[in-house]
Amino acid sequence: MPRHGDLRIVTGNANPRLAEAICEHLGDRLTPTLVGTFSDGETRVEIGDNVRGDDVFVVQSICAPVNDSLMELCLMLDALKRASAGRVTAVVPYFGYARQDRKVGPRVPISAKVVADFLSAGGVDRVLTIDLHSGQIQGFFDIPVDNLYAAEVLLDYIRTLGQNLVVVSPDAGGTERARAYAKRLGAGLAIIDKRREGPNKAQAMQVIGDVKDKVAMVLDDMIDTAGTMVEAGKILMENGAKKVVACTTHPVLSGPAIKRLEKSPFSEIIVTDTIPLRPEAQACGKFKVISVGSLLGKAIHNIHSESSVSVLFRG
């Protein structure tokens, strides 16, 4: 039996559809919550039900508008603690600011650590996330952090792409991720090597691995402006790939990303719903969205029932 009270699911405005998908998997309902703004623009939060002693999971990606989403999350955590919730878990499918995980120059912050401090100050007891950009961010917290892998839901769909598949890392830093996918798929592995030839000169790109006459799937944890991803698709086609597909967990899609992907050689762009897909992307026709609702639902069930979360990594 769980040590905590009833299971409760709370959500803000960042990704309510994903929260509904989680509830559908659990056979539960969302706890009524008012999350809006006052006339002066300040965030307003009010929990609609009694949560005293309950086991509450707050579903909120830190995605655009990033700072609004973060503030909503912090205030929901504080409201729940002040309402005497038994335990509060922040379910953050996309952890914003994760790329700012170290000092890259003088007089700059480590923003991911600041966000971790915000959540801790809000009174969170546990964090549940998916495909952290940097695994070491788990060490920024002094509480349990469960980092799930979207591969558990993506692999079934990727297998429908066919047998003649090669998984491609768009840079050397993503090689470990691409190798893990390739191993589970029984597919080939390729890496795109990028080298800057000199100051203010374009990068020279070459493909390490055999992609000729194969379906090349470019894999990354997120697509932001899509510059690197699109260039990877082009170089793969130039090296004889039969078809190129993009696959990512987090569709950030900022700036010119959607226009770039529309004009790109990718026939399909596989993403998850850790971040809601913008209307322009939905209209594009290239995007295939795989829901992580069931994955998060299983993790929430296991945490609530004091079962193992690591069993979700064994698929």
Automatic annotation (TrEMBL):
One of the GO biological process terms: ribonucleoside monophosphate biosynthetic process
Protein residues bound to ATP: 40-42, 99-100
Keyword Nucleotide-binding included in the entry's annotation: yes
Primary location recorded for the protein, binned into one broad class: cytoplasm
Localization of this protein: Cytoplasm
Pathway: Metabolic intermediate biosynthesis; 5-phospho-alpha-D-ribose 1-diphosphate biosynthesis; 5-phospho-alpha-D-ribose 1-diphosphate from D-ribose 5-phosphate (route I): step 1/1
Note describing how the cofactor binds: Binds 2 Mg(2+) ions per subunit.
Subunit and partners: Homohexamer.
Family matches, as PANTHER family: RIBOSE-PHOSPHATE DIPHOSPHOKINASE FAMILY MEMBER (PTHR10210), RIBOSE-PHOSPHATE PYROPHOSPHOKINASE 1, CHLOROPLASTIC (PTHR10210:SF41)
UniProt name for this protein: Ribose-phosphate pyrophosphokinase
Gene name of this polypeptide: prs
